[in-house]
Amino acid sequence: MSESEFTSDLIKQFQLRRYQLGLTQPDVDQKIGVATGLCAKWEMGNRKPTLFNAYCWAEALGCEIKLEAKHDMRD
User: Least enclosed by CB within 10 Å: which of 15, 34, 58, 68?
Assistant: First the structure.
Protein backbone atom coordinates (compact mmCIF):
# COMPACT_ATOMS: atom_id res chain seq x y z
CA MET A 1 0.00 0.00 0.00
CA SER A 2 1.37 3.40 -0.94
CA GLU A 3 1.37 6.41 1.35
CA SER A 4 -1.27 8.15 -0.76
CA GLU A 5 -3.52 5.07 -0.69
CA PHE A 6 -3.12 4.79 3.08
CA THR A 7 -3.90 8.48 3.58
CA SER A 8 -6.91 8.36 1.27
CA ASP A 9 -8.32 5.28 3.02
CA LEU A 10 -7.86 6.81 6.47
CA ILE A 11 -9.43 10.12 5.45
CA LYS A 12 -12.45 8.28 4.01
CA GLN A 13 -12.93 6.60 7.39
CA PHE A 14 -12.79 9.96 9.19
CA GLN A 15 -15.25 11.44 6.70
CA LEU A 16 -17.68 8.51 7.03
CA ARG A 17 -17.61 8.80 10.82
CA ARG A 18 -18.25 12.56 10.58
CA TYR A 19 -21.29 11.86 8.39
CA GLN A 20 -22.54 9.22 10.84
CA LEU A 21 -22.38 11.78 13.66
CA GLY A 22 -24.08 14.48 11.59
CA LEU A 23 -21.17 16.88 12.02
CA THR A 24 -20.05 19.50 9.53
CA GLN A 25 -16.43 20.16 8.68
CA PRO A 26 -16.52 23.46 10.65
CA ASP A 27 -17.92 21.52 13.63
CA VAL A 28 -14.87 19.26 13.51
CA ASP A 29 -12.51 22.23 13.10
CA GLN A 30 -13.98 23.76 16.24
CA LYS A 31 -13.83 20.51 18.25
CA ILE A 32 -10.18 19.98 17.30
CA GLY A 33 -9.25 23.63 17.72
CA VAL A 34 -7.78 24.14 14.26
CA ALA A 35 -8.31 26.87 11.68
CA THR A 36 -11.69 26.96 10.00
CA GLY A 37 -11.51 25.07 6.72
CA LEU A 38 -8.64 22.76 7.69
CA CYS A 39 -10.85 19.66 7.99
CA ALA A 40 -12.18 20.38 4.49
CA LYS A 41 -8.63 20.59 3.16
CA TRP A 42 -7.79 17.25 4.78
CA GLU A 43 -10.92 15.59 3.38
CA MET A 44 -10.29 16.97 -0.11
CA GLY A 45 -6.67 15.81 -0.02
CA ASN A 46 -5.24 19.32 -0.27
CA ARG A 47 -3.43 18.95 3.07
CA LYS A 48 -2.39 16.00 5.23
CA PRO A 49 -3.06 16.08 8.97
CA THR A 50 -0.11 15.68 11.30
CA LEU A 51 -0.15 12.56 13.43
CA PHE A 52 -1.23 14.66 16.42
CA ASN A 53 -4.03 16.29 14.41
CA ALA A 54 -5.20 12.85 13.24
CA TYR A 55 -5.29 11.79 16.91
CA CYS A 56 -7.32 14.90 17.81
CA TRP A 57 -9.60 14.34 14.81
CA ALA A 58 -10.31 10.79 15.96
CA GLU A 59 -11.01 12.02 19.50
CA ALA A 60 -13.41 14.67 18.15
CA LEU A 61 -15.30 11.89 16.37
CA GLY A 62 -15.46 9.69 19.46
CA CYS A 63 -12.81 7.30 18.14
CA GLU A 64 -9.26 6.34 18.95
CA ILE A 65 -6.20 5.43 16.95
CA LYS A 66 -4.38 2.39 18.23
CA LEU A 67 -1.76 -0.05 17.06
CA GLU A 68 -2.89 -3.66 16.82
CA ALA A 69 -0.81 -6.69 15.94
CA LYS A 70 -1.80 -8.51 12.77
CA HIS A 71 -3.07 -12.02 13.38
CA ASP A 72 -0.68 -13.54 10.86
CA MET A 73 2.47 -12.05 12.45
CA ARG A 74 4.76 -14.34 14.41
CA ASP A 75 6.07 -13.37 17.86
Answer: 68
